[in-house]
Design a protein that fits this description.
2 domains; 3-stranded antiparallel beta sheet; 37% helix; mainly alpha
Length: 381
């Protein structure tokens, strides 16, 4: 049975997960200054290498590092949301892929099976040659100096492990996965998922806590504060600055039409930016152009692409990333974020003040008190 709006709102308030303190940073703390107050901490300023799977700000901060459009084009199983859940951030060395600030493992993402297969086979060949060379050196050392006089154990193995980690722990796959190339795009995608999905966890080094833990999707849920009328007004103020960039009302889409009667604090705003604010968007100016921005999924939408009168419709829901709690009810728990905000704008009907059998509000309270007294009497007996 679906939840009513009041029940869903109560569920949201009771289900909000408080952020747990992150692990201590390895960087020594600086002495507190008495002359200048410390700056407020934001998700981008936080130490993203800390292991804090229950910290929402850490999670949002990791998601913010995935700036390449490429990530949004990957299947859901290996999109940026899944990598960030397991402690990964986008690489900053110019190569496409991810790394872990905690264990310093890295995985290069090559989303073409035939290219990846060639790279893996070449890396395997080089690794095998290196091991043969090490074995030869070790055997030579034993003959010359006796048993136990070869290279120090572990040093070369560590270098080899780093090479394997760079291409994605090659030894965990059966040889037959690399036996042939992909016949078509669908087969290539299947093989790539088989290769990369395990690396979400196993790509970390064995002692890294992210190898066995991940952030629950509901940690990303929006707090009641972010869904409040006050927060909506703040978003509307930023959206007002880019009102001239919006397409016409006919080409601005929200699944439900706005209520005819709105709270008095919203009547001064254009209906289009109210729709955008309800859907979780804020406004930003880039040069002289208007942008829609989402602080949770970090989606940025250039409104200049919708300026033509015969252009596409601006779908305020579809423009969010698919995992965003503003549109994803499973992540938000209960209803999508925009639905909570929309429900707060709907006028309260008279039926909400009456009982199931047409009782007025006073009668409902009296009946509740009567039932409570009867329950207390039964407990005394």
């Amino acid at each position: 049975m679906p939840l009513s709006v009041p029940q869903a709102l109560d569920l949201l308030k009771s289900a909000v997960t408080p952020s747990k303190p992150s692990s201590p940073s390895p960087v020594p703390s600086t002495p507190r200054s008495t002359s200048k107050a410390p700056a407020a901490t934001t998700s981008t300023q936080r130490n993203l290498s800390a292991f804090a799977p229950f910290d929402r700000d850490q999670f949002v901060g990791r998601l913010a590092t995935f700036k390449a459009v490429f990530w949004g084009q990957l299947p859901e199983e290996v999109c940026e949301f899944e990598w960030a859940r397991r402690g990964w951030v986008e690489r900053r060395d110019g190569r496409r892929g991810i790394d872990c600030g905690l264990c310093h493992a890295c995985v290069e993402v090559v989303w073409d099976w035939n290219r990846l297969r060639e790279k893996v086979l070449e890396d395997r060949r080089m690794l095998a040659e290196k091991k043969d060379e090490e074995n030869s050196v070790a055997e030579g050392g034993e003959k010359e100096n006796g048993i136990g006089e070869g290279p120090a154990p572990g040093n070369h193995a560590e270098n080899g492990a780093e090479n394997v980690m760079e291409t994605g722990q090659l030894s965990q796959f059966d040889d037959d996965i690399f036996a042939t190339g992909a016949a078509d795009e669908d087969e290539g995608t299947t093989l790539l998922l088989k290769y990369y999905t395990p690396l979400l966890s196993s790509g970390h080094k064995s002692k890294c806590p992210w190898a066995s833990k991940s952030t629950d999707t509901t940690v990303l849920r929006l707090s009641p504060q972010l869904l409040s009328l006050l927060n909506l007004q703040s978003r509307l103020t930023s959206l007002s600055a880019i009102l001239g960039s919006f397409p016409s009302s006919e080409r601005t889409f929200l699944p439900k039409p706005l209520p005819v009667s709105l709270p008095s604090s919203l009547t001064e705003f254009d209906p289009r930016i109210i729709q955008a604010g309800v859907a979780g968007w804020s406004g930003q100016i880039l040069g002289k152009r208007g942008l829609l921005t989402c602080g949770t999924c970090h989606r940025r939408v250039g409104l200049w692409t919708y300026t033509k009168e015969d252009g596409d419709t601006l779908n305020l829901i579809a423009e969010h990333k698919r995992y965003c709690p503003w549109i994803n009810a499973a992540v938000q728990t209960g209803m999508a974020g925009w639905e909570y905000v929309f429900a707060s704008l709907e006028p309260k009907t008279s039926s909400s003040k009456r009982g199931r059998e047409g009782e007025d509000e006073g009668e409902v309270k009296q009946n509740r008190i009567k039932k409570l007294r009867e329950m207390l009497k039964s407990l005394k007996k």
